[in-house]
From TrEMBL:
Primary localization: cytoplasm
Lineage, broadest ranks: Archaea, Methanobacteriati, Methanobacteriota, Stenosarchaea group, Halobacteria
GO molecular function: rRNA (uridine-2'-O-)-methyltransferase activity
Name this polypeptide is given: Ribosomal RNA large subunit methyltransferase E
Location of the protein in the cell: Cytoplasm
EC number(s) reported in the record: 2.1.1.166
Keyword NADP assigned: no
Length: 189
């Protein structure tokens, strides 16, 4: 079984947006307790690489060889560790399920969620290989459209996915950017 029910959300997003291939390098931001790590590791197989980051400690995954980093994605040093963990060819997929601690105050929770989503986008910008994909959770609200527009500038296209497994927290959606276009690797082509 999976460590977190949220694993099913990533499976549903993958079914809809076709994220993972065998051998891929995947970075998972806000990865604790590790449900998404389990799904990613299954999908990329033994030839793949999966790296997870969270503020919380992530217990080792028994069946999979996954590297985990304990750190805050708003801090530069965490990004530094991540760059070291991903080889020069870059990541094929960056996913973020990061969420702020909820206060119940809708506009504040939204603003914090967008802030974290932008941190994930910056990390994706640093890590993704040309053609790579990006998934990021964000709570709906006033700043979502502007964020979506910014993401769409870096990808061939962006879609908004509401996986059935996240029906109960109806304010969350996932933006999926397909086909990263800003990689330095692509610039000389
Ligand atoms: N996808 C995970 C799974 O399947 O097990 C569940 C992730 S949970 C919804 C959100 C996570 O984001 C929490 O574990 C939280 O610690 C993490 N998080 C929130 N802010 C963060 C930050 N600034 N840096 C790193 N992780 C963060």
């Amino acid at each position: 079984g999976y460590r977190a029910r949220s694993a099913y959300k990533l499976k549903q997003i993958d079914e809809e947006a076709d994220l993972f291939e065998r051998g891929d390098t995947v970075v998972d931001l806000g990865a604790a307790p590790g449900g998404w790590l389990q799904v990613a590791a299954e999908e990329v197989g033994e030839a793949g690489t999966v790296v997870g980051v969270d503020l919380q400690r992530i217990d080792d995954l028994d069946d999979h060889d996954v590297e985990t980093i304990r750190g805050d994605m708003t801090e530069e040093r965490t990004r530094h560790y991540l760059r070291e963990a991903v080889d020069e060819e870059g990541a094929d997929v960056v996913v973020s399920d990061m969420a702020p601690n909820m206060t119940g105050e809708y506009t504040l929770d939204h603003a914090r969620s967008v802030h974290l989503a932008r941190q994930a986008f910056d990390a994706a910008d640093e890590l993704l290989a040309s053609g790579g994909d990006f998934v990021v959770k964000v709570f709906q609200g006033d700043d979502l459209d502007a964020f979506r527009d910014d993401v769409s500038e870096a990808f061939q296209y962006v879609r908004t996915v509401s996986p059935p497994a996240s029906r109960d927290s109806s304010s969350e959606v996932y933006l999926v950017g397909k086909g990263y276009t800003r990689s330095p690797v692509a610039e000389g082509d």
